[in-house]
Amino acid sequence: MGRDDLNKIAVIGMGYVGIPVAALLADQKGMDVTGIQRRSQRSGWKIDVLNAGKSPIEGEEPGLDDLISRVVKKGSFRVTDDFSVIKHMDIVLIDVQTPTDGADHMPRYLALKEVSRHVGTHMKKGTLVVIESTVAPGTTQFVIQPILERKSGLKAGRDFYFAYSYERLMPGCLLDYIINLPRIVGGVNKKSCDKAVEMYKKIVKAKILPTDILTAETSKTIENAYRDVNIAFANETAMVCESLGIDVYEVRDLINSRAERHMHVPGIGVGGHCLPKDTWLLNYGVKKYGKFPINPEFVQLARKINDFMPIHATEMIREALASRKIALRDAKIALLGVAYLEDSDDVRNTPAYDLIREMETYGAEVVAHDPYVRTFPEAELSRDLNHVVKGADCIVISTKHKPYFKLNLKKLKSLMRTPIIVDGRNVLNRARAEKAGFLYKGIGKG
Q1: Given a cut of 90, is residue 160 above it in pLDDT?
Q2: Average pLDDT, the chain
Q3: CATH assignment of 8-206, given 3.40.1260.10, 3.30.930.10, 3.40.50.150, 3.40.50.720?
Q4: d(CA 295, CA 283)
Q5: Per-residue confidence band for 40, with pLDDT thresholds at 50, 70 and 90
């Protein structure tokens, strides 16, 4: 089934996973990589940016700009919207988003299914296909594999290699995490797994751990559910500390003084492509493909706690304004940070969405600032901090961007109508803010 020297690679989906993986592979000797990206209004611009040797990802991303420039100049990496190039490829990686939607949190696989149809239509015998998108357990073999086999007329494990391997990325560490974190690879059979492991060895320095597809899918969703549960514990603890009038960060330091304790950091909410949805993917997969009924209640409760944090923050804002005899409906709110993660431009499932919606429900005017995000339809967005803060009744810090640690509080106070700060990320020191004349409230700070 095919040659052993698989060196022509297509990476479908030029996002936070696809771009760094494609660039790293293109930097290896003898590898030739084509990125495939739909030329939509929302993301089609990435094609031209990448083909110019530049990164479309803003924020701090060590090494990525230079890597993309190098592989484009070398001629080993380019991007197209033409799926027919797949017919020339030895390896196809699929890195498209897999959101959940609605009150029942059902997975939306429209993009994944569409891409799978394209791959099945064009791929040749002996191709290695790897799903890197996060999916509910069972999806790779029971949803994607049938599409590929039906469209291609080929059989997975016999006529083409088929595997699942998930990313463990975080904006700000994309290349580092791909290279230096252990990689889990699940294959439909041993030969498929071996082929995928062989490819990843070209860019991964850490251990590569082989398994089956279902175990790999489940490992991904449980890994992120584990993180979500720990964050939910920190968030609930923060609200406990607020009620008791103490500082959750001091409590956290005292707990973590024991080396094996690792209490997480609370905050205004949880965002990113994975954590807000992977619990629901796990829940969906076990209910649809499990051998007996089980409802993972513990992880669902954690998800509800984390979803509640923007609502809790809004109540904190309302109380702060009320202490100055201002109703939220009459207030201008300056929201600092709309990215879900510090020093990145990533707004996927950012808690800023829910925070803005909650405040606007009360009639507040919300103007947002972010040094990295270029567009944010949910609110007026500016990179001019003075413009955002001018005439505001409350500054809300929702993202821990580095520039916010160096805010000129004296100047900001002079621009504001009412000097109130609600700190959702423990960016500012209470004493410093109060000395500058602000009413200061913070998540977890009673």
Answers
A1: yes
A2: 96
A3: 3.40.50.720
A4: 7
A5: confident
Angle between helices 145-152 and 110-122 (to 10 degrees): 30
pLDDT of residue 43 exceeding 80, the answer is no
Q: Which two tokens stand for residue 143?
A: 């949803």
3-state helix, strand, coil in the chain (%, to 5): 45, 15, 40
Question: Residue 191: left if φ>0, alpha if ψ -120 to 50, beta else—which one?
Answer: alpha
Domain boundaries, given as residue ranges, for the chain: 8-206, 223-446
Q: Which helix (H) or strand (E) holds 77?
A: strand 77-80
DSSP assignment string, 364-397:
-EEEEE-SS----TTSEEES-HHHHHTT-SEEEE
Say whether 54 is catalytic: no
Catalytic residue among 274, 332, 400, 441: 274
Tell me if the pTM is above 0.70: yes
Which residues neighbour 56 within 8 Å (Cβ) at sequence distance 6 or greater?
A: 14, 19, 45, 46, 49, 50
Report the distance separating Cα 257 and Cα 238, nearest Å. Answer: 18
Closest CA to 267 of 319, 230, 216: 230
- Catalytic residue, from 46, 195, 220, 400: name it: 220
Q: Please report how the helices 351-361 and 297-322 are oriented relative to each other, as an axis angle in degrees rounded to 10.
A: 50
The reply to whether 241 belongs to the active site is no
* Local structure of residue 319 (DSSP, 8 states): H
297-341 pLDDT per residue, tens: 999 999 999 999 999 999 999 999 999 999 999 999 999 999 999
Query: Worst-scoring range by mean pLDDT, 40-49, 51-60, 156-165?
Result: 40-49
CATH number, domain 223-446:
3.40.50.720
pLDDT at 27: 97
Decide whether 8-206 matches 223-446 in CATH topology: yes
Report the candidate in 439, 414, 434, 232 with the shortest Cα–Cα distance to residue 319: 439
389 neighbors 407 (Cβ within 8 angstroms) = no
pLDDT, tens only, 241-262: 999 999 999 999 999 999 999 9
DSSP string, 165-223: ------TT-HHHHHHHS-EEEEESSHHHHHHHHHHHTTT--S-EEEEEHHHHHHHHHHH
